[in-house]
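May I ask for a single protein's sequence together with how it folds?
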Amino acid sequence: MLAKAEIKLEDGQIIPLQFGMWSKARFFEMFKNVPKPSNTPIPEDENGNLLADPLTPDQRLRETLENGYFAIMVAAIIIAAGAENARVNSGDMTPVQLHEAMNWIDLAGGVESDQVKNAISINDFFSLGEQREVTPPKKQKSAGRKSKSLQ
């Protein structure tokens, strides 16, 4: 099932977005090139008290900035994948560049604007575990009922 959204830019241009299996695959294809932050935790003792930070203040600041970069890239890739899916479904095979998606986000009010937040949240990129469980429960129950009725 395709989830649809759109982003309306300041100049009135409307960017259609479609999220489904194709956009999910495209997201992961683009995502594999984004450097991942390390998220080094600050160690704690058995009582939950923070111990000495293994990172220097400069390293911790760099990691914080990398996390921000990571979040920006994820948002841009989600929008790019959704826009590219809409393009492909309309017959336009032109790939969406990340700078295009970032410009659209800026021209739509930024990542914190309601329309961008709604567009990003409509996708289901992070529900892969649920989708893998496709064993139809009706078939299992039917088989169980048949075997019970035969006894």
